[in-house]
Amino acid sequence: MKKTTVIVLILISFFNSVYADQPAAAYIARYKDVMTRTAWWRDARFGMFIHFGAYAQAGRGEWVKSNEHKTTDQYQCYIDAFNPTDFDARQWARTAKAAGMKYAVLTAKHHDGFCLFDSKLTDYKLSAKFNGRDVVREFLDAFRAEGLKVGLYYSIIDWHHPDYPNVGNHPQRDDKNYLTGKNINWDNYLKYMHGQVEELVRNYGKLDILWFDYSFDDYSGEKWKATDLVRMIRKYQPDVILDNRLEIHGGSSAKQRQVSYLGDFETPEQGIPETELVDVYGNPFPWETCMTLNGSWGYSEMDKNWKSPQLIVNCLVNCVSKNGNLLLNVGPDARGTIPEKSKEILSEVGQWMAKNGESIYGCGPSTLPKPDWGRYTQKGNQIFAHWLNTNLGDINAKGIDPEKVKMVTMLPSGSELSSYTSWWGNQDTGNFFINASNVPQMPYLYDTVIKIQLK
Ligand code: GLC
Fold first, then answer.
1. Distance 430 CA to ligand 1 centre (A)
2. Bond into 27 cis (ω within 30)
3. Would you state the pLDDT for residue 393?
């Protein structure tokens, strides 16, 4: 090989190594858009998910039609009986607000296809028999009035529409003759689905979030004509935040994760990622864990598997410490009431939030390593030590330089806590102890938050 060729090859490989992992300008612009759009949402951190629909009548969760392979005729008894006379969106909104939640997302249509909004494209809707009342509109008005941001969940899957095939978890998936004699027209379904989304984005004022659910197998992205759908949505709601379920993402791997035109945040379900989510270039990626309070999304009469307020606080802190949000679900019953037990848990979480919200809103991960006794969240030069686990002795806040600490306080009371460096503290990882007076139990319920204000 000639000397010049070798030099050229070396130069090429050098530039590749430096620039190969750099995002293209278009990606950077899209990433910036996503971060701008989601800024308020990433500060809000805590929202309410509401799964409400005719399935509440069956009281066995929102999948009852699919789980029990019911036909639309067999499901009709729930539609007929569903008459949520106690529905009062203001009560729901107050419950959410008192829990410290900053936004809420309601199921405008779930997989069963029954609409809570007054769609002009179908009669399969509550308003047709609920004195014309539009539950979606009442929800939006009431939550906005309480100062909460509002979102709508919309199922792109539809187990009722005649042009939707018996694919995926469709109730008639095992019925080999389901399609016989039927002239299924997929484009017709898409027209209906896009039309309904258009109704939602045009007729209900400013929506803050649209939460689509969900893609599977080949039913992903362009199968839903997602690019057209998103273009239409953005025309009417340029700032609306979209979840990522219009398409299937690459297995949620940091090696593949990229911001997409089709969605702004990732949606882990019933669990919390091990670590902060980042895109392929290492940039923080917006995410929100959605979680039930018992084991069910839609109302379930016999599901008493409630999570404790302590676990919920733990879960919220866990999410925020990894730069994520928590969308916590309630499933109102057939009368339209949020279950008592849910209200009880939320009210206790709310009492904790009232004293400790400062360690959640606008906070994200800390640069410090995760401590044995709990987790950190951080906002600028304020570090919040969440004392979540039993702990022996004083709180060792590793990684903190004592010289840089301005003041340490107990967040719920504001009272100062003394701190010191110990003769046996590990000098290599920092040596900073907060005097917890050797109390064997956490002084405050669920999570004792200590604020470390840096200079
Ligand atoms: C799943 C379920 C659905 C629920 C949703 C919440 O996709 O199909 O019932 O609404 O998760 O994330």
1. 44
2. no
3. 85
Given this model, what pLDDT does residue 430 score?
75
From the CA of 61, give the closest atom in ligand 1. 9
| CA distances (Å), origin 97, targets 101, 104, 152, 258, 297 | 5, 10, 17, 33, 20
Ligand 1 centroid to residue 62 C-alpha, Å: 9
Give the tokens for residue 90. 């203001």
The number of the ligand 1 atom at minimal distance from the alpha carbon of 153 is 10
Q: Which of 169, 228, 233, 223 is nearest to 199 (CA)?
A: 233
pLDDT score for 283? 94
User: What is the 183 CA–ligand 1 centroid distance (Å)?
Assistant: 29
Give the CATH H-level superfamily of domain 25-357. Glycosidases (3.20.20.80)
Q: Give distance in angstroms: CA of 55 to centre of ligand 1.
A: 14
Q: How confident is the model at residue 423 (pLDDT cuts 50, 70, 90)?
A: confident
**pLDDT (tens digit, 9 = 90+) per residue, 242-294?**
999 999 865 566 677 888 888 999 999 999 999 999 998 999 999 999 999 99
Ligand 1 within 6 A of 62 CB? Answer: yes
Span(s) in the chain for CATH 2.60.40.1180: 374-454
